[in-house]
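debug: dumping io for the single-chain case to check the tokenizer round-trip. Nothing else runs in this session.
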Amino acid sequence: MGLTKRSKKRFAAQQVVVTLGALAHNVLVWAKRWLHDPLPGIAQFGVKRLVRDIFGIGGLVALNAQGQVTSIVLNQANRLSHWILAGLQLLTSSADVAVSLGET
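debug: decoded output
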């Protein structure tokens, strides 16, 4: 995650930065595991490529009045959005979240 040296003067602040970096890394590893069954090709993606190519896909997220996600629209112009669409639809089907492609 790019945390190779101390960047904060206070030790406690540096611990928070390192802990947040570890949490971000773990979330990426979990997401890769969740997407592995519907998208077996994602196994070849490393952490940097996941962040740059998969989580860098533009789009829109619609929320209801309670702040819950109701739909996700991925930018159809992105070359990987068509590939990841089925995997995201499968992951979000139990939460009643619609995932689709569109112009964003």
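debug: round-trip ok. The first strand starts at residue 59 and ends at 63.
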